[in-house]
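Example 9 (inverse folding). The structure is encoded as follows.
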C-alpha cells in the first residue's frame, strides 16, 4: 500500500487520480517508481548491410537452381561455402562486418556449424546408397 499512499499524497486526496494512469504512473510515463525498463533498440542501422544479405540470398538461389538441375553436389557445396564464408567474414571483420545477426561468437559458431552440419548430412545420405 505504500505505492497507493504515495499516489494519494502526490495527487492531494484519496481516490483522486489527477494526471496519473491506472497504474499510478503519470501520463506518458509507463515506468513505475523503483522499476527501470530498458527499451531494446531494434534497428537495421546496427545490423548487417543489405547488399551482403542480397549476396547471401543470391547464393542460396544458385544452390537451389543447381539442386533442381540435378547438380546436388554443387548445390550443397554452394550452401556450405556460403555458410562458412559468412562466418569467416563475421569473424575477421568483427563489429564492422556486413553480416551481423547476433553476437560475433554466435554468428561465427552458427555459420561454421551450419556448414559442417549440411556437409555431414549430405555425406551421410550419399554413403547410404
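The amino acid assigned to each position is listed next.
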Amino acid at each position: 500500500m505504500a505505492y497507493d499512499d504515495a499516489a494519494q499524497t502526490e495527487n492531494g486526496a484519496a481516490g483522486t487520480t489527477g494526471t496519473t494512469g491506472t497504474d499510478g504512473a503519470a501520463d506518458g510515463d509507463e515506468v513505475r517508481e523503483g522499476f527501470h525498463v530498458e527499451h531494446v533498440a531494434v534497428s537495421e542501422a546496427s545490423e548487417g548491410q543489405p547488399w551482403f544479405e542480397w549476396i547471401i540470398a543470391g547464393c542460396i538461389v544458385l544452390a537451389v537452381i543447381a539442386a533442381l538441375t540435378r547438380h546436388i553436389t554443387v548445390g550443397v557445396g554452394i550452401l556450405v561455402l556460403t555458410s562458412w564464408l559468412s562466418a569467416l567474414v563475421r569473424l575477421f571483420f568483427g563489429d564492422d562486418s556486413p553480416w551481423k545477426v547476433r553476437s560475433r561468437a554466435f554468428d561465427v559458431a552458427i555459420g561454421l556449424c551450419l556448414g559442417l552440419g549440411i556437409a555431414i548430412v549430405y555425406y551421410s545420405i550419399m554413403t547410404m546408397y
